[in-house]
Write a structure and sequence with these properties.
Elements (H helix, E strand, L loop, with lengths): L8 E2 L13 E7 L15 E7 L2 E6 L4 E7 L9 E8 L14 E7 L4 E6 L2 E6 L12 E2 L2 E5 L3 H6 L7 E7 L3 E6 L3 E7 L6 E5 L2 E5 L3 E6 L4 E7 L49 E3 L39 H9 L14 E2 L5 E6 L7 E7 L4 E8 L6 E4 L1 H4 L12 E10 L2 E10 L7 H4 L1 E6 L12 E12 L1 H7 L1 E3 L11 H15 L3 E10 L2 E7 L2 H11 L1 E5 L2 E4 L1 H10 L8 H27 L6 H14 L3 H5 L17 E3 H12 L13 H18 L10 H19 L13 H10 L5 H10 L3 H10 L3 H12 L12 H9 L5 H14 L1 H9 L9 H11 L4 H11 L6 H18 L1 H16 L7 H7 L5 H14 L10 H8 L7 H10 L3 H12 L2 H10 L20 H15 L5 H14 L6 H7 L10 H43 L6 H5 L1
Antiparallel strand pairs: 1-27, 2-31, 3-4, 4-5, 5-6, 7-8, 8-9, 9-10, 11-12, 12-13, 13-14, 15-16, 16-17, 17-18, 18-19, 20-21, 21-22, 22-23, 24-25, 25-26, 26-27, 28-30, 29-34, 30-31, 32-33
Subcellular location: Cytoplasm
Protein name: CNH domain-containing protein
Keywords: Cytoplasm, Protein transport, Transport
């Protein structure tokens, strides 16, 4: 019983008996009812109650009816209060004893505005609601045992108001059917006495006398006996049955014979038998209605055939009562208190009856259809029910929000033993439950009075009220109404907008803060509603028991309890709006508790079990709670929560749970070590949870989507950054946290500004560049890479080849300004790589060479040379050769002007080369192999390659201008002067320098063969574009070279070089002129090779001339013969001299 301040409470001590968890709870209606004293001096007790339309009627054993009127509460959530209105003392003929003492029954007939009051065996009638005597107070019926039998089908069809309501008065000797409207009219009497309970469906009623249950056709007056109320009752001996006479006298009613040990009826044939086990009751002669056949059994004769078989018994499971009866059959029976009959009608085609042995022993509920057959399975009660009612919202109030899909329950008042003490309890079980699961589906609601045992509680019973009452359920509203979650330092007092929103949420939640109540419980001087606990209250209270306060500062979560609640609703589909909100709320609260348990375990330094983490994760995903709620409990992720201007609105029950958990969580106690319990228990789970939430982007069902996903992305990045701290430096590998981090960034995040702060905080510049790339802000991407390349710390170390990555990235961009800016920066840092940005044909931004040169000269002067080299040598753009030559020459001449050492280096290289003995490399190869690291030296090599080559660039530079600049350094730049002399046609000067200045005889020979072109060009590279000189030109050059060889200072060198030249290239020399030039002092042997080759050449030429002459003679002869043959074929022709002259 809720909010009890008096003596009567619903038990919450026994786990099995905890009404907080059960299907039902008590709601106090009224207490401390002023009960009068009975004639014997004892305090009166409540005997019956009923409510209708805000009126409460209480019958007492003192023969009084107390009338209370309700006054509505101040608000929708306030319970109505009841005030005393009148005290009625119905008249009676004689004082009755025991169960018939006082007001035994109150029967309200709202359709006709009447009430029937049975007091001390006398039935009187009153009007509703004030209980004034009806029909002038003239009608009284003495010797009455019971009144009831209202047609339940007529109640469902709501069809009694026009014609009146038919009730059955149970007299001591007969039943009397009367119709009550403006007047009371008797319909008929049925000769059947001793009936103490009756329920009716149309013409068929189920009745109970002191010992047995029977089915009674109130129109045809036929009775089918079913089974005894108590299986220990002594069966009456069956009288001799006549063979043909089926009529019975009123004093000797025939009864069905049942075994004393079982409620099972005897077997019967397939045909309905109204003989033996069925009485034909004589209608009273005064009844205005003639006997008629029941509409449910057309064509049935009033007197069945004697040959009809007996009724077949339905199989009934043997219970403890049968075993007990067998045992007790052999001993002397002790007097047993009669069991009160209980009859209910759960459906239009069934009756529920109870049977048992003793009040202290288990009872059994059996379902009987309208044919008297036992159907369904039986239901069991802890003890035999003292009273029994059916609670079905579906039947009684289908418009109720609680009714959608609710199943009917059987409520029985039983006795139980809890903690060694006998108590009274209401046992509730679903009507449609599987018999195998019946025990598991039961719940109990204990009824206790202070220091009173079960037997000491006076006047107790259950009653089904005439009308359903709506009760306020503040707990439902308090749990479901939305409230703003407090984040950080926020004022406790809500603002105007928040207060307005609170009022709106209260109004919305109040729709569900109503419970239907129709079952009343009275005991002692208290009356309570027995209300079906809303599912949210049942499960919420179970979850609350999972929160265990170990100490004022220590909290524990019972994971098994929370998980049991989750399992109980797993897969359950909502059938109405309240149930949808309930299931959502419970799943979310359970997920909070399971996740809170992981936080508490982490604070203690324990790594949670895998199944606990898995259950928490599953609950979080299934609950779909706002992730900001979860993150608000975990430092430092709570800093990522973005509640926006409106805030985070969650159910108040969830908000209270979050606040409670936060009080036990502090950033000082929670060791934030990603490698420890913090990472294992929390970070890994939160990562998967947030990744699951990211998949919901774009779903219209997510409230406050912008702030939710901004928080989700920020928290996810924060979690991944913490987990990635232990990952080795370098690019991400598949399946790692770093790969997940990259994937999250590349797919885009909604928390752009917060992500920038996090990456700066964790020094993850490369990730920052990926963030910019996801937004296509290419300038920021390059600026971040520039920071990494220039030395800013990047903890991840993912940018391995930064400069190359910049070059490749620039080729993909279309923004010329960005490409120009960072291409220049790269050219300044790495000229060879940077110039490729301006010269790459695959780049999306193309620069004209003139434009690129101008840019580089302005922003990256050091890269101009590389760019020009790329243009001239790589792309053969000869128009830039003069610029490149000028650059090389400026570098070399500048060095020679300011450095004596450089000049000496060049002169020394000539002397060293000349001192080498053949065979020796060319001078070009020599200086290349012995090059220094100096920039000017390499520039000189490129200069020689450029001006000495035979490709297009060698013919495009200004030879005259170049010669003027080189002349002052002719002694130091001998190769350059040789090339320029060759370009200007000064072959003699060039060969002289080659022979005497350098001593590079092989290059001199090459000079003669190539005509002075490409003598200092590397062997590999571009093929010469100019044609080779003619042999006559080569012969002339060789003649110049021979003269220079004759002037070599070293005699031995002179003889060797001259002899070699004549021997190898004798074909280019005139023998006579060579012989004239050879000094007489030289031995013939020195030039023997030349002379032998020369003579052989002369002989070969003479022989070739003879052959040519002979071939020419033969050719002339062949042509003469061919001419003669053709002339003969043509023949002679006459020529007219005059014609020819004309």
């Amino acid at each position: 019983m809720e909010a009890d301040h008096g003596s009567h409470t619903a038990s919450t001590n026994d786990p099995e008996d905890d009404s907080s968890f059960g299907t039902y709870a008590l709601r106090e209606l009224i207490r401390d009812i002023p009960l009068s004293e009975q004639p014997d001096g004892e305090r009166a007790r409540i005997t019956c109650i009923d409510t209708w339309n805000g009126n409460l009627y209480i019958g007492t054993s003192a023969g009084e009816v107390l009338h209370y009127v309700s006054i509505p509460g101040e608000g929708d959530e306030e319970q109505p209060s009841y005030i005393f209105a009148t005290r009625l003392e119905p008249p009676f003929n004689a004082q009755q004893d025991e169960s018939d003492q006082g007001v035994k029954q109150l029967l309200l007939l709202p359709d006709v505005g009447k009430a029937c009051v049975l007091c001390n065996g006398t039935l009187t009638f009153y009007t509703l609601p004030e209980l004034s005597p009806a029909m002038g107070g003239k009608i009284k019926q003495p010797n009455c045992l019971w009144v009831g039998g209202i047609d339940h089908n007529e109640i469902l069809e709501d069809g009694a108001a026009s014609s009146g309501t038919v009730v059955v008065i149970c007299l001591k000797q007969r039943l009397r059917l009367i119709r009550i409207g403006e007047e009371a009219r008797k319909i008929r009497d049925i000769e059947l006495g001793g009936v103490s309970a009756i329920q009716r469906r149309d013409d068929l009623a189920c009745v109970a006398d002191g010992q047995n249950y029977s089915l009674l056709d109130v129109v045809n007056q036929r009775k089918i006996e079913l089974f005894p109320i108590s299986s220990l009752s002594e069966p009456e001996p069956a009288p001799p049955e006549p063979q043909l006479n089926v009529s019975r006298s009123r004093e000797e009613p025939a009864r069905r014979s049942f075994s004393a040990t079982s409620p099972t009826r005897r077997p019967r044939g397939h045909e309905r038998n109204f003989s033996l086990g069925i009485e034909r009751l004589r209608p009273d002669s005064s009844s205005p209605w003639p006997a008629r056949s029941s509409s449910r059994q057309p064509g049935r004769e009033a007197s069945p055939s004697p040959a009809s078989g007996s009724r077949e018994a339905s199989p009934i499971k043997a219970g403890p009562a049968e075993i007990s009866a067998h045992t007790s059959a052999e001993v002397i029976r002790e007097p047993v208190k009669p069991l009160p009959p209980n009859i209910a009608s759960p459906t239009p085609n069934e009756f529920l009856l109870t049977t048992g042995t003793k009040m202290s022993e288990p009872g059994v509920g059996m379902f009987v259809n309208l044919d008297g057959d036992v159907v369904r399975g039986t239901i069991e009660f802890s003890t035999y029910p003292e009273s029994l009612v059916l609670d079905s919202y579906v039947q009684n109030d289908p418009s109720s929000p609680d009714a959608g899909g609710e199943e009917s329950h059987v409520l029985a008042l039983v006795r139980r033993e809890v903690n060694g003490k006998a108590i009274r309890a209401i046992e509730a079980q679903p009507l449609a439950s599987d018999p195998g699961d019946a025990q598991a589906s039961k719940s109990w609601l204990s009824i206790r009075s202070d220091d009173q045992s079960a037997d000491e509680i006076a006047g107790i019973g259950l009653r089904l009220a005439s009308t359903t009452t709506r009760l306020a359920a503040k707990e439902v509203s308090n749990s479901l109404r939305l409230r703003r979650l407090k984040i950080g330092e926020r004022p406790n007092q809500p603002g105007d907008s928040e207060s307005k929103r609170n009022e709106e949420e209260d109004r919305f939640a109040s729709r569900f803060a109503q419970l239907n109540a129709r079952v009343l419980l009275y005991h002692d001087a208290t009356i309570s509603w027995v209300v079906r606990n809303a599912l949210i209250l049942q499960l919420d209270r179970q979850l609350n028991t999972a929160i265990q306060q170990v100490s004022p500062s220590e909290l524990e979560i019972d994971v098994h309890t929370a998980q049991r609640v989750v399992n109980s609703i797993r897969g359950q589909e909502a059938r109405n709006e309240l149930e949808f909100l309930t299931l959502t709320y419970i799943r979310q609260k359970a997920s909070l508790l399971l996740f809170g348990n992981l936080i508490l375990q982490t604070i203690r330094g324990f790594i949670a079990y895998e199944h606990d983490k898995r259950r928490a994760e599953d609950a979080l995903i299934a609950g779909e709670i706002d992730p900001r709620t979860i993150l608000s409990m975990v430092p430092p992720l709570a800093d990522e929560v973005d509640e926006g201007e409106q805030g985070i609105w969650i159910s108040q029950g969830l908000s209270d749970t979050v606040s409670m958990l936060r009080k036990r969580i502090s950033s000082e106690e929670l060791v934030q070590d990603p490698k420890g319990a913090y990472g294992d228990n929390l970070l890994q789970l939160i990562k998967r949870y947030l990744l699951a939430w990211r998949k919901k982007k774009g779903f219209g069902s997510v409230a406050d989507e912008a702030h939710v996903f901004r928080t989700v992305d920020a928290a996810l990045l924060h979690v991944l950054l913490m987990l990635d701290q232990s990952t080795p430096r370098g690019p991400a590998t598949p399946g790692t946290v770093r790969a997940e981090l990259n994937d999250v960034i590349d797919r885009g995040v909604d928390c752009f500004e917060r992500a920038k702060q996090l990456f700066e905080q964790y020094q993850r510049l490369y990730l920052l560049s990926r963030l910019y790339q996801s937004r296509k802000t290419v300038g920021q991407v390059l600026a971040t890479w520039k920071r990494i390349i220039e030395g800013d710390r990047d903890a991840g170390g993912e940018l391995i080849e930064g400069e190359h990555d910049v070059r490749r990235y620039l080729t993909k961009l279309r923004d010329q300004t960005v490409v120009q800016e960072y291409g220049s920066w790269l050219a300044n840092r790495n000229p060879k790589l940077g110039v490729q940005v301006f010269a790459d044909d695959r780049s999306r931004v193309h620069f004209q060479p003139q434009e690129a040169v101008a840019i580089l000269k302005e922003k990256a002067p050091g890269a101009v040379k590389d760019y020009l080299e790329h243009l001239v040598f790589g792309k053969n753009h000869v128009q830039y050769v003069n610029d490149l030559i000028a650059f090389y020459l400026d570098t070399v001449l500048s060095e020679l002007e300011k450095s004596e050492e450089a000049r000496q280096t060049l002169v020394q290289s000539y002397e060293t080369y000349r001192a080498l003995r053949p065979p020796k490399p060319t001078y070009r190869q020599f200086i290349t192999d012995n090059a220094t690291e100096a920039e000017w030296w390499h520039n000189r090599l490129r200069l020689l390659q450029l001006i000495g080559g035979s490709h297009g660039a060698a013919s495009k530079y200004d030879v005259h201008t170049l010669g003027e600049r080189l002349t002052p350094y002719s002694n130091e730049l001998v190769p350059e002067m040789i090339i320029l002399n060759g370009r200007e046609g000064k072959h003699e000067d060039a060969l002289k320098l080659l022979t005497h200045g350098l001593g590079d005889y092989d290059t001199a020979i090459r000079y003669c063969l190539l005509g002075g072109s490409s003598i200092f060009h590397p062997g590999t590279g571009l093929a010469p574009e100019q044609a080779l000189p003619t042999k006559e030109e080569q012969a002339k050059l060789f003649e110049y070279l021979l003269h220079e060889f004759f002037h070599i200072e070293d005699l031995s060198e002179r003889l060797e070089r001259t002899a070699e030249l004549l021997e190898r290239f004798g074909g280019w020399f005139d023998v006579a002129r060579v012989v004239a030039l050879i000094p007489n002092s030289w031995s013939v042997e020195l030039v023997s090779g030349f002379l032998v080759h020369a003579l052989r050449r002369l002989v070969r030429e003479r022989n070739e001339t003879v052959v040519v002459k002979a071939l020419s003679g033969a050719q002339n002869l062949r042509l003469a013969v061919e001419f003669a043959d053709k002339m003969e074929g043509v023949g002679p022709s006459a020529v007219d001299q005059e014609v020819d002259a004309g």
